[in-house]
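Protocol step 4 of 6: structure prediction from sequence.
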Amino acid sequence: MANTSDIKNGLCINHNGKLSQIIEFQHVKPGKGPAFVRTKMRQIESGKIIDFTFSAGHKIEIVRIENREYQFLYREGDSYIFMNIENYEQVNIPSNMIEKPEFLIEEMICNILFHAEEELPLILEIPMHIISKVVYTEPGVKGDTATNAMKPAKIESGAEIKVPLFINEGEIIKVDTRKGIYVERVKN
């Protein structure tokens, strides 16, 4: 068993029977009274952010997690099939474990956090930015670059995003997957 002096960002612990990952923490030693550790944690199963304060020296149960790279292969029903790029082992990830599945493109490399002792996938993280081709959008009109007007566009992953009016069908763009927004046009 570890204690509060072992807390650091990214640490995964078993808190109240649920797996939680430390997002940020602060050791506080007030002038009067005992020291404590203020934490902000993300519950892995629900994604809920909670604030919790541990008294100094409180025992915590650390859970060992591993971050592994997997390649997205295909979708099968309500789950997505990924392959370990080192040993070619395949794993099924249900769609509720993926935050933005609409941005998955075949052969994309993603990170999967695994519970090391149980070999259980916990979180799937897709890359922050993807490069994708615009498969459908209304044609742009010359001179439309002066305003910040946006129009809907469909990219090759199937996701719909807003792009500037000057973007045309067939162009390659960079997309921020966290916010689902257009970043820039990519030159060939």
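Step 5 (inspection) to follow. Residues 2-62 form a domain with the SH3 type barrels. fold (CATH 2.30.30.30).
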